[in-house]
Design brief:
Rossmann fold; alpha/beta; 6 helices; binds zinc ion; 2 domains; 340 residues; 25% strand; 7-stranded mixed sheet
Length: 340
Amino acid sequence: MLRRLPIYLLLDCSESMAGDPLKAVETGVMSMISTLRKNPHALETAFLSVLTFDAKARVAAPLTELISFTMPKLTFRPGTSLGAALDLLREQMAKEIVLNTKEVKGDFKPLVFILTDGQPTDAWSEAAARLRSSSAIKATIYAIGCGDEVDFETLSKIAHYCLHTDDLTKEALGSVFAWVSASVGSRSTRPEVEGEGEVQDIPLKPGLKLIDIKNPPKFTGQNKRVYLHVLCSKTHKPFLIRYQLLPNSPNYGIKDILIVSDDFLSEGALKSPPIDANRLGGMPVCPHCGALGWFQCTCGTLNCINLEKSKNNIVTCANCHQLGRLAAAAGAFNVDGSVG
Ligand SMILES: [Zn+2]
Ligand SMILES: [Zn+2]
């Protein structure tokens, strides 16, 4: 019987990955697959599965042989439920992996690569403990943190090896996946040898650093990015304003504005500690109707300010359809954002 080398990719698809980073991840996985298909050892033994996580964890692709693997399209949603992803990983491995018995040699020790750029927003520690203790399957887990707000204190409790890249650019993520494919390629040459081809044997690509998991960098807990979920008051379509912490300041400026799918918030919008709206600078332009700025309805929904001139500058909330006349905001107020 064929002994497989199972590879699980756990990909963070929270809003912090929106836009170019997610495209770079797709490209990275596809180039990894084409590299591995050229490696006869990998082609013979490596099987790949992709799990994604946002507010929920999903099986984007079950464990599939390399030759017939097709990369699923990735979409982003709010939330970073790493705990749910670890539980899903445990369930999938229990279903998919053939264990050693007296009669047959089962699959080789699985490799798990977790790619994330944020902080988990759910109860990850119990899930991590379940994964590391209860399962008969002992996988080697790598966590690759990308960007400048990675919580390595958490990741070092989950993974056997942690790596860090500062950037979420195409080049940086390209380096990450080149390294991942080198690791898989190396493991697949002698997968029966425990520990062979693990991190110490693979030269790190430029920009990629190994984290000392016994002494991980302290996580400041400060959110460098805040996301506001806004509805266009004219078209009722959603969008996301991404704010970035300004240097040497407690305040945020607009980084970019992203159109999201209509069902973006349908599965578990999450609430983070409200943020003082006065700390959010800049005047966003609604990507749907071109209106300037946003306001918060009494129902809590954020709307773009599309004034209905014919009706004395009234705005209608896209969620609850209340009419509101726009008055100058007095003093500070808090809005619910998310930190993904
Ligand atoms: Zn609008
Ligand atoms: Zn409303």
